[in-house]
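Dear colleagues,

As part of the handover before I leave the project, I'm documenting each prediction I ran so the next person doesn't have to rerun anything. This entry is a single chain, and its sequence is reproduced below.
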Amino acid sequence: MFFSTLRRSLLGRTLAAVVTVSALLMILTAAALFWWAREDALAMQDAHLEDMTAALARADVAALVPRALTMDPKQFAERIESDQPLPMRHHRMMMRGMMNRMGMDPDRNAGERRTAIPAGESVLVRLITRQGQAVSTTLEKALPAGLSTLEIDGEPHRVCLVFLPNGRYTALAEPMAMREATVLEQAKTAVMPLLVLLPLLLFAISAVLWRALRPLKRAAADVKGRSATDLAPLSYAGVPLEIAPFVEAVNDLLARVQAARTREIRFTADAAHELRSPLTSLTIEAEHLKRLNLSEEARPIVENLESGLARSVHQVSQLLLFARAQAGESAAVLARDAKPWYLSELVGDVVEPILPAIAEKSIRFEVEGLDTDTPEAPVKGVSRAAIQAMVRNLVENAVHYTPARGAVTVRVERSARDLSIVVSDTGPGIPESERERVFDPFYRIAGSGLPGTGLGLAIVRTYAETVGARIELADARPGEVPPGLKASVRLALPAASDADETDKATEDA
């Protein structure tokens, strides 16, 4: 699931590609840098070993070579590498005289210089790890002058051998394990900044990509938070040039959808308006016909005709109201109808037209939450027409579906920030499985046995989305038969400062 989402995410795919390429480049660079740093550290270790061996050689010949300790390194190296024998002390001069008297040539090997110690000989090697202590080891193979590898006490060592002109030598050894540990530490130190830089670089790239895609996310959040009737174009603010064509195409599509929707809604409204006049005329004619001296057979037919015309007029009125709600007329009303209004007056305007139906069915009708003993604070910044359309349809539905001698209650709850209007009845209610479908236009629950248009709750939801209200359906009497229906409309009221600004804008308009 995670990888499927990652493959479909532009940011995820870009980050995956950047991480993969950056990681490979960093690994290759780190490997090359590690190798170079290791080779450089080995060279430095060899140079250090050579310097220490030369220092020991200088001390070894200090008694034989005048000014050996004060010679500069170049002069000392030339002196050591020359074939000139070292100066002899007095006892060596005596040895020379003895050899002359014996007929031997004391200078026969003076010009010979050793360049290696042959295999099988024992050699004294000083160890760095033992403060220069010399140990003897027998050579399995010849040990040449300079740097080489020699096994001492079963452990490999790096050895530097310097021959002196008189045939003596100076050898200094360093364990390979200690040498490798030092080299490895130096190589790690060289690579470590690169390894630390990799996550920082990836974090910086991620932040840049996330910031670059923020305008697109804001546009998506803006579209997601809109109502179904809001088809305003998306903003180009902060949108990258590469994404601007996509936003432009979406805006063009929204414009075409808005135009098609406007034509469709206008056609519905015009058709409903055109049907309203002839239906009204037919209703008047039916009333005139009813007043005539009709036979017993004709009177029921006229009554059915009058009832059918009344339902048709009501349905056409609902169609016209629904078309206006879909067309966004309530949003325009919100701008010009936001001046203060009173809940008591709104409820009175809603109830008055349906009082005959309430009396005819002997319904017990109650209004709760309106305190008539204290002055009522007006509602500001909210369209009265939108709230009235929602409450009217909810009350009409409640009265229509409540059986004779039932009860309908309208409860108003209001605080500084919220307004809640709850309409409860003792009718058959709506099953939980149908509570989402009933908001669809023209949808009616099968088997209700009562006529209706199927538009009441669709109108309520359309106006609720326009003003930002929430509509909820529940059982009015859980566990009882019938359960009844409780329809709740909850709306967040604007702050006092926002409401005052809306009032001022309305007055200026």
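Residues 85-111, 505-509 have pLDDT under 50 and may be disordered. The longest strand covers residues 155-163.

All the best with the project,
I.
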